[in-house]
UniProtKB/TrEMBL annotation:
It is found in: Cell membrane. InterPro entries: MetI-like, MetI-like_sf. PANTHER family: ABC TRANSPORTER PERMEASE PROTEIN MJ0413-RELATED, ALKANE SULFONATE ABC TRANSPORTER-RELATED, MEMBRANE SUBUNIT. It is a multi-pass membrane protein. This is NitT/TauT family transport system permease protein. It comes from Enhydrobacter aerosaccus.
């Protein structure tokens, strides 16, 4: 697909989203949502307010911790379960079942275990993001080509040589895909954690807007979060495509 085609598709998709958004505003009115252009203006006003940025910093710090833990633990556990086939076959349906559980139901447990504050937000982010990373990594390791493994044995490579030159390049595309999914879900988990277990952060601002019926605040903060998530996910998707293309 050419760059021009991708740009055209993106432009059409953006126009459709804005049109649907405007239609929703025309139907529901300002009691439920603000108009697209007004929301962009409100978001711009928020970005120039000094008191807004501590909330951004709180969310980004919790997200950075949560995603780092999810990535390291998810890849490590995925590799371990992929190498140990029996353990992986036992763990996979359990992880898939846990993945389908609405994580909000675990809020009381998280609150009792971690209390209010940073720890609860990070924990909520981790339980959202770590499982898809584990599943993608485990699948990549389990589906390694037997030819690659025979090549490692025939060439008598050391463990480090096998990992760095054969195994890691082979599983990297699927691992990146898992990290991309985990990135979005970790951010979602942190925001949900801030709604329930924090006095600062973008999620806290959103729930405050809902509780105070401050539609402008709620939609403006939501727009900022969505734009950040879409931009970051687009960069990860570009990296994912680049790695798959040069595989």
């Amino acid at each position: 697909m050419s760059r021009f085609t991708r740009a055209t598709d993106l432009a059409v998709f953006t126009i459709v989203i804005l049109a649907l958004w405007q239609c929703l505003y025309d139907y529901a009115g300002e009691v439920a949502i603000t108009a697209p252009m007004a929301t962009f203006r409100n978001a711009g006003d928020l970005l120039v307010k000094p008191e807004f940025w501590p909330n951004v910093g709180a969310t980004m710090l919790a997200f950075a911790y949560a995603f780092a833990i999810s990535a390291v633990a998810g890849v490590a556990l995925g590799v371990l379960l992929g190498v140990r086939r029996f353990a992986g076959e036992v763990a996979e349906p359990i992880l898939a079942a846990i993945y389908t559980i609405p994580k909000v139901t675990l809020y009381p447990v998280m609150l009792l275990a971690f209390g209010l504050g940073m720890s609860a937000k990070v924990a909520f982010g981790v339980i959202h993001g770590v499982i898809p990373i584990v599943l993608f990594t485990m699948s990549a390791v389990k589906n390694l080509s037997p030819t690659l493994l025979r090549t490692v044995r025939v060439m008598r490579l050391t463990g480090w040589q096998a990992a760095s030159t054969v195994i890691v390049p082979a599983i990297l595309p699927e691992v990146i895909s898992g990290l991309r999914v985990g990135f979005s879900l970790t951010l979602l988990g942190v925001l949900i954690g801030e709604m329930f277990a924090s006095q600062r952060g973008l999620g806290f601002l959103i729930i405050n807007g809902i509780n105070g019926h401050n539609v402008r605040m709620m939609t403006a903060v939501t727009l900022i979060v969505v734009l950040f998530a879409v931009t970051a996910n687009s960069l990860l998707l570009a990296l994912d495509r680049h790695i798959h293309h040069h595989r």
